[in-house]
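Justification of resources, computational component.

The compute hours requested in this renewal are based largely on the per-chain cost of generating structure records like the one below. Each record pairs the submitted sequence with a full structure-token output. That output is archived, and it is also reused by downstream analysis tasks.
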Amino acid sequence: MSDFRIENIRGGLVESTHRVSVSVCDADGALRAVSGNPDRITIMRSSAKPFQAIPLVEDGVVQRYQISREELALACASHSSERRQVEIVAAWLARIGYVETDLACGPHRPLSRELAVQDFDAPVEQDPLPPSPVTSNCSGKHTGMLALAKHHGWDIAGYNTPDHPVQRRIMKEIVRYMGIEVTEIATATDGCGVVTFAVPLHAMAAAFARMAASAAAAPRAIVGAMVTHPDLVGGVGRLCTAVMQAYPRRVLAKVGAEGVYGGALLDEGLGIALKVEDGNARAATVALVAVLEQLGLEPKPSRELGRFAQLPILNTRREHVGMMQPAGTVSFV
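The structure output for this chain reads:
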């Protein structure tokens, strides 16, 4: 059982506990820090997006269709459906000759409703766009997949399904960066209808380390796009955006659904993967800040990212009645 955990404190008592498994690895796959089970099979969900975008650079899609850094960042994003984010995706989609109905992702309300950390009195969202495929948090990823299909002359029908050439091409990069055999990677269907990957937590951490440490053009382009445009990767009040803004070109962060986070310390070449065992997304936010702090990142994340380091528990009157906070530590190997 993991010693590192996130606790919900109410009335000075621990009301509930969210156990967290953590792996921190270098590019050789060696564990540097751990908590819980580093071998835990973890469905990456949206934390896989930076790796799913690799073929856009490797295969020449970026050059052919003049995909901008902003668009590449959105291919890696779980964006909050903010107007600027959606406008960039919509223009990109139109430029490569497709329409919204070509996107296989379905509509949903903005992720800011679930993931953004707001001031007590701030509205959750202002002037939200109506739900549609192009406002989906995954619309950038799907537009990138359509661009990949068009570049290779592949029929876009079923581009989101496991046997389509788009997904087979992406799987090659997942295998390469995870450093494990394709037979060791299970697949599932993500919330947006596309393939996602189940891998050991340590393999996921090592993959982020390899992306961080690589001098090759594709990972450099992916990392560069994300750290240059962190506002597009998440959004207002989102930890992915806030951590990359607080530590410019030093930290990479990418959320995944069900309590998953992947990331990297870029200068140190270390990859981070964590999974909150019960899938709590708010707990994952607190957990990532705590892990970065325990890894010795300076200035201290508890100060630079204070509003994410502990999250308030509010009642129906929006009164502060408790706190979600970290407890325990990771173990250094």
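The chain has a mean pLDDT of 95. The radius of gyration is 19 Å.
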